């Protein structure tokens, strides 16, 4: 099973600042990685797939990068609606499909 | 647009079977993979399994001995049965449509709102 590890567990930023979230895989997942955003009480929403491709309707301030075992989700200018929990997910080697434990983006 | 709605009992007794349904509206079940994902209270996401519209399945090895997924194309529904439940199965259960890229399973592109299931006597 591929273990996905996200860091930090919590990231505190002010609106207008840049946020950088990390995800590490226990073995290479190539570029077969996705990012999701989950707001409190809601289902997750797909943000990024194939490590760097924004899903339909996702604002350009969200960007993904990386390949192999190291990945980054960057929010260039954090907006108030971006405060949420973010999960990475690998789909390179399954079963099982695995998710990271999440990074909570908090208001500073 | 395609919408997914989970339904089923919110309370299940230990050792009994959890039985959930996901109804797809605004589109057909055909030609897609569908999935169940669960989220224990305050915790992260756990993939439960996939089902293709023709009925072929793939399950999480950690749950494989207790999980059965099925599809009813006439009703545009998928279902999940989880046997011998314990408190550890308490979670919000989501159904989701799976995106494919070049014939390979990738991400969960459309999600239902989720249904909360508590295992307790």
Tell me about this structure.
The complex is a heterodimer of chains A (108) and B (121). In chain A, a hairpin with a 3-residue loop joins strand 5 and strand 6. The model of chain A has no long low-confidence stretch (mean pLDDT 97). Helix content of chain A is 0%, strand content 49%. Chain A starts with a strand and ends with a strand. In chain A, the strands form two sheets. In chain A, strands 2, 4, 5, 6, 9, 10 and 11 form a seven-stranded mixed sheet that branches. A four-stranded antiparallel sheet of chain A has the order 1-3-8-7, with no helix packed on it. Chain B is mainly beta and 121 residues long. In chain B, strands 2, 4, 5, 6, 9, 10 and 11 form a seven-stranded mixed sheet that branches. In chain B, strand 7 and strand 8 form a beta hairpin. Classes of the chains: A mainly beta (108), B mainly beta (121). The interface between A and B is medium-sized, with 24 and 22 residues.
Keywords:
heterodimer, A: 108 residues, mainly beta, seven-stranded mixed β-sheet, four-stranded antiparallel β-sheet, 0% helix, globular, B: 121 residues, 11 strands
Secondary structure layout plus pairing:
The complex is a heterodimer of chains A (108) and B (121).
Chain A: E1 4-7, E2 10-13, E3 19-25, E4 33-38, E5 45-49, E6 53-54, E7 62-67, E8 70-75, E9 85-90, E10 98-99, E11 103-107
Parallel strand pairs in A: 2-11
Antiparallel strand pairs in A: 1-3, 3-8, 4-5, 4-9, 5-6, 7-8, 9-10, 9-11
Chain B: E1 3-7, E2 11-12, E3 18-25, E4 33-39, E5 46-52, E6 57-59, E7 67-72, E8 77-82, E9 91-101, E10 104-111, E11 115-119
């Amino acid at each position: 099973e591929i273990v996905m590890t996200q860091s930090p567990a919590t990231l505190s930023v002010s609106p207008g600042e840049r946020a950088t979230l990390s995800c590490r895989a226990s073995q290479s997942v190539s570029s077969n990685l996705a990012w999701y955003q989950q707001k409190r009480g809601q289902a997750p929403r797909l943000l990024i797939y194939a490590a760097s491709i924004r899903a339909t309707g996702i604002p350009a301030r969200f960007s993904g990068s990386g390949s192999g075992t190291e990945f980054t989700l960057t929010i260039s200018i954090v907006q108030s609606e971006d405060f949420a929990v973010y999960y990475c997910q690998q789909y390179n080697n399954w079963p099982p499909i695995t998710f990271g434990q999440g990074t909570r983006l908090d208001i500073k | 647009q395609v919408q997914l709605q989970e339904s089923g009992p919110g309370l299940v007794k230990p050792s009994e079977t959890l039985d959930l349904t996901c109804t797809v509206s605004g589109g057909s079940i055909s030609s897609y993979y569908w999935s169940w994902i669960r989220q224990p209270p305050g915790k992260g996401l756990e993939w439960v399994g996939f089902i293709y519209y023709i009925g072929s399945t793939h399950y999480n090895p950690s749950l494989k001995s207790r999980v059965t997924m099925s599809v009813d194309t006439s009703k545009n529904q998928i279902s999940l049965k989880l046997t011998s439940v314990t408190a550890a199965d308490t979670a919000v259960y989501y159904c989701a449509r799976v995106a494919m890229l070049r014939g390979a399973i990738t991400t969960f592109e459309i999600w239902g709102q989720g249904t909360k299931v508590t295992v307790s006597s």
